[in-house]
Amino acid sequence: MDLIKPWNLRVSAISFSPIRGSCYCPSRKTSELLFPFWPHLLPRVSYKYSIVHAKKRSSQSQPLVKPTTAEQISSCQRQDDLLMDDFEDEALMDDVDDDDDDSDWENEYLADDAEVHVGDGGEGGGISLAGTWWDKEALSIAGEVSVSCDGDLKIYAFKTLVNSTIQVRIEKLSNKSGSPSMTDIEAFSSIYRAKLDEAETAGSVPDNLSLEVSSPGVERVVRIPEELDRFKERPMYVKYVTEGVPGSAVESDGIFRLVSFDLETNCCSWGLADVKINREKAGKGRPLSKKQREWRLNTPFGSLCLVRLYSEI
Fold first, then answer.
1. What global pTM score does this model have?
2. Which of 42, 93, 174, 203 to pair with 148, CA 20 to 30 A apart?
3. DSSP H/E element including 156
């Protein structure tokens, strides 16, 4: 019986826990907190972090527009309809899943319509410049800020937009998880905002730049092979390709734990992570079966499309 199943694009009723992180965008006068939501596809989940938008000192906070009673009732009705649809879909899928083989451990992770890419300058990390006349200068200044923080706060992702917006995600190297505290984010933001003000006065960047600074998020991308040792004790979502018929590749994924990796052969070995979504394949309320515990997957680094941390929170 094959233990590896190809990527399945059928609809699933699996719900993912929200990712919680921190994000801060320094305001020169006022701050407003928002709660919005990572080249490879990533199953879409809800990312949760706070953002404070940077504004000029002369700018004023916009009043919050509260929904009317009618709008609230309409919203509640729509939510009830969506929940009922989800419930019906889940019931249908449960009937189908009952017939699946218990070794089908890789059909639970499905891509949303929103594609996310490794190295996109956002959730996927890396640097993405819009090609404006000022973005390289803004990136250089951000690097100076990182150095001024004793190198402990490193730029995880940097992105510029044509609407004069800078989005930065920072990680804390002294923290094993890489997550900075809100104080760290505020400190980085304040220093960066002050340096951008100086650059605006000098004319090296445009006026009214908007700045957003955040953390990478709990389910951050794991850089291969640089960060395998750093996060080896954490369960990871792994998307990889294997050879199918000659000249084709089959894409698969799963929630795994890192067993070992070799920098000389550029290969790594994975086992099933002891997480709820895997345990449920052995039966509700049961631990991983012996077959699951002994299951192994060997992958060359080059076959790994995406690796990110996995959280059950």
1. 0.63
2. 203
3. strand 153-161
